[in-house]
Write the structure tokens for this entry.
Amino acid sequence: MIKLLGILALLFAVCATTAKLNPDFLGVYNIQNVVRWTSLFGIISIGAAFVIITGGIDLSIGSVVGLVGCVMPILLVNKGWPAWLMLLAVMGMALLIGLIHGLLITKMRLQPFVVTLCGLLIYRGIGRWITNDRTIGFGSEFNDNLRLVATGKVHIPGLNGFAMPVPAFILIALVIVSALFLNRTIWGRHLLALGRSEEAARYSGIRTDRLVILAYVICSGMAGIAGILFALDANAVQPASHGSFYELYAIAAAVLGGCSLRGGEGSIIGVVIGAAIMRVLYNSINLLGIPTQLEFAIIGSVILLGVVADEIVRRALRNRAARKRLKRGNE
Amino acid sequence: MHEEPLLQIKGIGKQFPGVRALHDVQLSLAEGEVLAVVGENGAGKSTLMKILAGVHSPDRGEIRLGGLAIDLSSVRDAQRLGICLIHQELNLADNLGVGANIFLGREPSGRVGRWLGMVDRRTINERSREVLQRVGLNIEPNTLVHTLPIGQQQLVEIAKAISVESRVLIMDEPTSSLSDRESERLFQVIKALSSQGVSIIYISHRLGEIQHLADRVLVLRDGLNAGELSKDEISRDKIVRMMVGRDVSQFYARTPHEQGDAVLKIENLVTPSFPTEPVNAHVRAGEVVGLAGLVGAGRTELLRTVFGIDRAISGRIRVGAHDISPGDPVHAIHRGLALVPEDRKAQGLLLEMSVRDNISVAALRDHLKFGGWMDRAFESRAANDAIQDLSIRVTSPNQITRLLSGGNQQKVVLGKWLATNPSVLLLDEPTRGVDVGAKHEIYRIIENLAKKGLAILLVSSEMEEIIGICDRVLVMHEGRITGELSREQFAGDLGEEAIMKLATSHQPQATTMPTAIDSP
């Protein structure tokens, strides 16, 4: 809880500073943009969080986003599939990728880092191959129907002029489902338990393999959903770069949002706030005229600061608790 | 003979979060003396030894070596002063040679080699040979450690200790994984070292060894000195009385009760660890069956296989009328099995999670609401029941399990399984690392569960425990059940000896062959 308030405070601090330095930050158009991007990155970050909670990692998220972006226009435009069938196929592909990762990690006992690193290379390669590395897109045919899923906005009555981007609704739905799953169902509890100690979980009668596989399926599934939105939002996809590095944003958002890479810890809301911080930072770099070459350096520093602050607070709390216990023990 | 003590400890105390390991301990050790230190688990032996070895620093008290007050704030300090601890689990890099291990961390190098970080193998080999000879090992210094039997590895560890001119050697249960022959050889080495002036602190549960080796026995209980015995005073009764602090029979209070039909039936079960030894056994409702044997006899492996953590190669496990599918703990739990595992911290508990989460984790599956939702009311109820029934001392059910004392942690593990309503309870060293008070409580819990009709199979390396709380004892040796003893057979004066005999011999004793289990 303290942690959640901490990163929320960080988010407000970054927003306030930016708004103070450049009032354009609070402009309706800008806010809508930040919300839309936060939604897209929030979705992949939730996926990454599930894997990180099991003590694993998924480095292939960006390549899955890229591959989805390449496959969609091919099926929709070149092959002329109906939209619903294309979406079904793309999601099926993403879930299958997650299943393969999970099976390799649990049944073959391969390391998640290695499996998903290979995934990163393979899916990127396939995407570039099936498109001949040429930029492909949806054209203008879908601007007023399918693409609205990513680019559409819904006017909120009462907020003058502000329209909520559609992806925000998708994110909110996914947040609710994921948070309930993690905190209120037995599978979520078991997932947290196995993240803490896989051995103890196994001795407690938890089917750890199945849950780990499930986490990778969720992660790739989220990457699939976000991949669809990213591609529709961009309209044109560059196979070599579309989605690259996104896994690092997702992992960073998850860590910033309170997941420990050791596993067993994490909150969905925190992860989404983490993703928001990253997007606001990115936005303020643009708005404040900071050289964009510094983007990575700034984002990296802020994450590092957040993690260091978290560790300092954690130690202070632990020491306080230890002193209390010692006092009680001596009485 | 031993007038001026070499090592003297006065008023040592040590507190850990949640437990006071040592209150006030005195110890003195003369040059060349073999001092046996005994005590129940949790009496403070290992904390005391770790303080001497520089692993922990004491909260108060004084340590004098050769009359001078010393400060042992690191393992290196202790080694420099000539105090060396030989761990129960050996601390050798088994991918390296014997000589490399003996000189690990202080490799000699030639004058030129020093600048290049080169190792002077010749010196290592020569000096290793010398110390190996002193412990009676005739092996080449470049022999890889993992190719040696465990007894010889232990001797290498001792050679390493004396190569740094150790004056005090601390041995923690050195014979726990040795064969009789290997132990005998170790005793010879210990005697030789003591006659060369090396002082030895010897921690053991085995009274025979202590009688054979020790010049003096120091008994610890609850972090205090419980008494001392000189060589000719050493007797089993005296030691046990000092260790337990009350009459043994009272400590293991037993009231016989009725036993029902065989609930757990193990038929020709072959575990992956001992693929040539089919095991047969059964446990009745209301019966506490002990599984005795030396470390490595296959007892833990048997429990793991019955519970499904390891997949049985062949054979049947039945609970009541139902077969348990091999390698499937979930099914085993569903059919009423529960396992309190050997390693509480790694296997029994999710240390960083709350007491409530730990207690409910195994039972949640059977208390699902429609759609997979957790039944949070059940969760709280189960935790509160366990805390009350087992008198687990916590500040709240939300307390992080890591912060509890060993005894309370173990009660959380028991609570977790009782929440699943088991009919068979498998217990693997349930009182290891638990203080005497909590131990007593755990025995009472076991007793009560048996009374309620649970079938209990208990692995224990503590003879007192086996003899004190079991209705029947099975003894294992190298994966085979070598004998079965009834209460009348093991509760008498010769009971411990009878068990030890079975634990060290591979042939099943004709008269005590395990009886065939009730046919289906």
